[in-house]
């Protein structure tokens, strides 16, 4: 019997792609899974298909349709989870979509809609799960809580054609790190995954060729390769892992280190307001003749990981 047997998980966007594979893998380890997806024909059918597959394998699954970023729908998701299974132990925020353009031509709606689903979708469900777990601790009850957020390497590389998506994914990392700080005293872990996988999002546009399945051999970008890490982070052996960010794909996982803060530049004139001349004198020791604009900046260069 798996040590996850009987635990309860909510997974948003679980009808297809990453969410589906995460739901299937958790269910194989005995987790009772609540599958959330948007109440639209294609998504609804996919959500019920995922649930049917879990049940056919002997697992327990329940479908709750709704908008993951809507407060009322998120509240209903929690309520129906408790009505069906009586608890919540694992919250996996995964739902999202893309509307890719450069900032030159992106509309307000294209920016707001993507940020809403990714970032707000994480926020409202994190808030509900965290309040539930904190409330149990304050009531003297034992809590088993695992929060797993889904970000993207767009948050660290920058993504010129995805100002909406990259901004949301960076926000998810920051919000989850804050959640980890809040929840450590309650024994709840909070972590972030940055998957590379073949999904509806990556199979549209310029990335489709890179992520498609090979004709033979191991499919490094199969979304199923990401799911075991989610299950592991949900498990008891991972109880001390919190406040971490993982890049996961194929047969490998990278653990991200925190950003490095270089030694301070101190005004050579002493304890006084900077002058332009003093700023240039000090900062030019870093931004010297060998410095390459953008490539040597904050964003991680492509190919580093």
Describe the structure.
The chain is an alpha/beta fold. The chain folds into two domains: 8-255, NAD(P)-binding Rossmann-like Domain (Rossmann fold, 3-Layer(aba) Sandwich), CATH 3.40.50; 260-305, no CATH class. The chain is built from nine helices and eight strands. An eight-stranded mixed sheet has the order 3-2-1-4-5-6-7-8, sandwiched between helices. Strand 4, helix 4 (108-138) and strand 5 form a beta-alpha-beta unit. Helix 1 (17-28) runs parallel beside helix 2 (41-56) and helix 3 runs parallel beside helix 4.
Layout of strands and helices, then pairs:
Elements (H helix, E strand, L loop, with lengths): L7 E5 L4 H12 L3 E6 L3 H16 L4 E5 L5 H15 L4 E4 L14 H31 L7 E5 L3 H4 L5 H21 L5 E7 L12 H4 L15 H7 L11 E5 L2 E4 L20 H8 L22
Parallel strand pairs: 1-2, 1-4, 2-3, 4-5, 5-6, 6-7
Antiparallel strand pairs: 7-8
Brief rundown of the structure:
This protein has helices at about 15-30, 40-55, 70-85, 110-140, 155, 165-185, 210, 225-235, 275-285, and strands spanning about 10, 30-35, 60-65, 90-95, 145-150, 190-195, 245-250, 250-255. It has about 300 residues and is of the alpha/beta class. It folds into 2 domains: about 10-255, NAD(P)-binding Rossmann-like Domain (Rossmann fold, 3-Layer(aba) Sandwich); about 260-305, no CATH class.
